[in-house]
Amino acid sequence: MNKFFYGVIEGFYGRQWSWQVREDYAGFLHDHGFDCYIYAPKGDAFLRAQWRDNHPQEDFQQLLSLSQYYHQRGLRWGLGFSPLGLSFAYGEDDKIRLQEKINQLNALNPDILCILFDDTKGDVEGLAQRQLAIVDDILAVSEADQHIICPTYYSFDPVLEQIFGKRPAGYLETLGNNLPDSVDIFWTGNQVVSTAFTVDDIDHVARLLGRKPILWDNYPVNDGRLTSEYLHLRSYMGRPHQLAKWSAGHLVNPMNQPLISQLVLQSLPLLYKLSEAYNADTALEKGLDKLGNRTLAEKIRIDLSLFQDVGLAEMTEQQRLGLCNEYRVFNHPVADEIVEWLNGEYRFDPKCLTG
After folding, report:
1. Phi, psi (5° rounding) for residue 220?
2. Lower CB density within 10 Å: C or N end of the chain?
């Protein structure tokens, strides 16, 4: 049984992080005591819609360097792989190409391989059985130490059935009863974006899955049509430190803005290390202190509710332009990300859902 861990999964749509940002995150995660980083951006088509094709050599080399960089810092490194289309039809030719792909990914030395069946139609006869067959064939060749499955229905949120069709009867139970005990399963909570987790929530899904879930926590991610209008800056709340006993792990999905995300992410280790002594407001102050600019920290503190609660859609044009001018003078990378967001450079683009 794997020990409880927490980490970051780069698993969002929209504007992607640069390779340099991903490399720099190794230092941030190491310094704050995280266990792992999982590369699973929705923008990498060669792990999703074009999974049958090889990564361009330059991108493959970037991934190999990233793997080495994280391992050098004592962090576990993972990949998120979405074999899109196989839940509908899976023949012998598909199996051969799938296993060839996994052998290619083995060369990147992932400690964790996530097999992601999310964000695809699910009202398919024999869905669970089809996915179990795919997982079995991946496990036969994968050299990763840990495997995590994301079900098509990874939450009880009714929005999933509205978008992807009615969940097949017994879907989660069939996966849980037939997956090897060593394979973990993601769960986002009662909602796709859950504001809180309780022991009753976790116990319920754990009984269905026959194992403790690994939480895929969609906070502070802001890659959706509505959420891209906001910057999520408050530290973690509604996540009891007892999650370390109730669940098998806790992976958090950051915002498209990598540096602003760190204001929130740094509070997760504090939550688990301080347990009952954890205070979200104090954790936010620690994050702001790390900016190294007191004036900028105070400015963000003043504007926090405007960014997180009001959002771009409700701002007046005068407010938005005024804020752009105020943050532009700081010449600070976090302030630069705020200006870009204010300028609409992170707005949701429906085209990102097709990749």
Report:
1. -100, 20
2. N
Residue type, 216: W
Is residue 210 within 8 Å of residue 170, measured between CB atoms? no
What pairing do the DSSP bridges indicate for beta strands 249-252 and 5-10? parallel
Query: Where are the alpha helices (H) located in the chain, listed in sequence order?
Result: 19-31, 57-72, 92-106, 127-139, 158-164, 171-178, 199-209, 243-246, 258-265, 267-274, 280-289, 294-305, 317-328, 333-342
Residue 331's DSSP bridge partners are none
Report which of 219, 151, 157 is spatially closest to residue 183, judged by C-alpha positions.
151
Nearest one of 256, 211, 224 to 350, comparing CA atoms: 224
Which tokens hold the place of 218? 């969609």
pTM for the whole structure: 0.96
Predicted pLDDT of residue 125:
87
Phi, psi of 352 (to 5 degrees): -65, -20
pLDDT digits (tens, 9 = 90+) for 302-354: 999 999 999 999 999 999 999 999 999 999 999 999 999 999 999 886 655 43
